[in-house]
Amino acid sequence: MITYVGELLEGLLVTLELSFIALAIGMILGLAAALARIYGRKPLSYLANAYIELIRGTPLTVQLFIIYFGLPVLGVLFSATLSAIVALGINSGAYQAEYFRGALESIGRGQMEAAISLGMSKRQAVARVVLPQALRLALPSWSNEAAYLPKYSSVAFLVTVPELMARAKVVIAENLRPLEVYLVVGLIYIATIASISKILDMIYERYKFTVE
Amino acid sequence: MTKVVSVRDVWKCYGKVEVVRGVSFDVEEGTTTVVFGPSGAGKSTLLRCTNMLLIPDRGTVFLRDVDLMKAGRKIDYYRSRFGMVFQHFNLFSHMSVLDNVMIGPRVVKKMPADQARLVALEALEKVRMKDYCKHHPSQLSGGQKQRVGIARALAMDPEVLLFDEPTSALDPELIGEVLQAMLDLAKEKKTMICVTHEMGFARAVSSEMIFMDEGVVVETGSPEHFFTNPSNDRTKRFLSRLTDLYGRHEEKSESVAGKK
What we know:
The structure holds two protein chains of two kinds. Chain A is mainly α. Chain A is built from eight helices and no strands.
């Protein structure tokens, strides 16, 4: 058993790499889309809305295959790993946008009014007052996304990225013990997600505040 | 006396409802103007139009010689020359008391941190909240929150202070400390426009009172005028009802005023 656990853990590193980069890309896209939807002018707001609905309306696998198998037809060639990161990032961004939007909209109008009345521009008011509160409020639901991604990233094995699931397939092809290996894989996922949740909980406890 | 603020024929509607219908008044430097009237009279909307937090549909407001409707991109700057205190405090929930008061000078005036801290501490001292610097808004009583709200406005060193029913959301026993802070400011000759029903406060410090109803100014005059012989029937009715409803508060605020 020891022999293949090392192999699986190497896969876990790839899984984590995919997840963290995708989470970061998704956060940037998600924040931009949420801000555009709430504060942007009409065309920008529509564009953000279209992105969110398009991504949430289609399976991740379809998005991944379009990038990996489809785009080369147009001459755009991404490696398997890059395809997976881009697909996961764009996908996560649409969901993160909704978490951020909910949080942004829950900040009372009075906070914005107070900031504007001090002489802040709308941009300064959002950056200094509304967004810092929204990010804190979004954290508990946003941590869902951080817990989903390592699991969703397993679709990357469909395009040959050597992540945890792909390694499991290889191991099973050699030792022919699928039940045992998949149970170990499940345990590795559980341990990973539990650690991520724990860290995010600690961050939340540190920064949480009581809404006026 | 010089005029600091001139409100000129301001109109504002929400959808089809005309909330403010052609209000004009002037505010002299160093005086307190009290605006009062029944709820829905358009007082808060008028106050928000005064510093262009809401843009009037018609009419304009002058801050000294500047026509605020023609200020264009500089409107954020002119708005910073007004300090505003809100009924529900609107303190920034994620910041300490000190940061709440510092953020205006820091972000709007681009003041260095150490200088902004001094300004903020001075403002907090004035409302007797200096000892609560490190507290968060959720740890304060309503009266304390409102005093921090006043300090936050003061830290910008505004030309005019706008108060939007600053004591209406407070428990009766907490009203006194907020009124005291406002009285201190009035005694210092700060220019203030207060939407309030605290008639004891109005009597003690205001030089001009404005009674509003249904979006228009019904009657203006000195406190003596209002408390001895108001001319308009609506004003009389409202004042007598106010005494019935708020009699207790009024006594309280008068006793605060009386101490000075």
